[in-house]
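EI: anyone free to look at a 473-residue chain?
SC: sure, send it
EI:
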Amino acid sequence: MDEMLFFGEDAFSMAPAQERELAKALDIDYSMGTTDQTGFSALRKESLDSTLKIVEANENSPAFWKAVKKGKATSAVEEFSVLNELGDASSYSSGDLPEEYDEDLKRDFEQVKLVGAVGKVPYFAQANEVINGDLVAQVTRMKTIAMLRKLDVLSVFGDATLLPTDPNGIIAQAIKRMKFPTQNVIDKQGKRMQLEDFNNAGKIIADNYGNSMNLKIWMGNDAYTDYVNQLIASKTYFLNGGAVDSVYVQARNLKIGSGGGNIETDVFFRHRGETFLGALHPKMNKAKTAFASMSDRAPSELIAGTCSVSVDALVGSLLPAATYDYAVVPVNKYGAQKAFELTSVVVAADKKCTFTISDNGSPDGREAAKFDVYRKLSSDTSKQNYKYLTSFAAAATSKLDDGSSVPGTTTVLAIDWDFDQVLRVDQLGSMSRLPLATISDAVRWLQKIYFTPKVFNGGKIVVFKNVGVTANS
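SC: here you go
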């Protein structure tokens, strides 16, 4: 290391041994030897690029992550240009200059965030000859699959305003960078997707100078099934003069009006709030009779003094008149606490529910970052009938249920699939594995990856929210 590090006005140089240890701490290698693990020296990180490529090739569930282009991040805070509007050109006289019309470009940034998993294999299991295969390799592969699934979810649905350790996903960035969010965000209010929606998305993207014939429609399996059902229900088919009772439709390819492209399904574009295990309600005990905590380091449980709701007037409210129960869950980076219930909330027409929620004195570093809210009808007595409604950032000044979020619905994206002008995901370095200290007679390690999604032009993305199962009239 010939370079000299300057602190103030004093020059500082390292001894050769210090240089080797610093290089060992920062570099990524593809193998680990015993010399890297002795004498209290820095442990060398091991690249998992080959494992990542093999798992990505064979694991089909994180479909969006596999399909989106991955680029290279160069810093912990990635800066890039966002195009709000094109400039213009004009005719002009010989010997003169045309009028200057500048592009509406602005500099924006996204923070690179970290996704990781801790692997552990007991020494006893490694030494047991009855157990075949390399357990460390098997667990490494399983942890890589788990990380890919989390990367898939966060790259689309992450929202740093709700949980600071999450990145801002495609949806959060697109809405932030849309010139006309009222145009590009379409509220289905519980209705199914239909062909006319894709035609509308193509028109919106074309109006924003996008390629409407290069659409990728991303939706969950349930939303796709409901879309096919809508397609069948809204059409009449005849065969040899007789009506057809049922039709199998594989409507994956689209070319309709101003829109064309493919429909892609991703299992993680599921109902909002639904876990990998399919639960739509807050965390519950094994018997599904009471709420449960996800982590010992979750925020403190809410009480009546830190969680309440009032019913207020709102002309034109979308919230249907009914009597509701709400379950409010405080969440931090470690996990979610038990839900706190607000029951028998009577809502009339043109009313909204206003929540007053604050952290209930959690220990330092464990305060709630957000509050997840679930809702059900009071007449549905089982706690399993709760469905995810929305999330509020702990610092949010407005916490409302005005019907703009519909429980039990999903989100569908229509994207101009252009990685240079619309979106991309960038990684800082490779996925790597770092040995951890031995605890409880087990080999332990950390697998991690740094990444950030990037949306360059939100106008070329259309978000369909509150996509449900109700047939369009």
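EI: The longest helix spans residues 135-157.
SC: 👍
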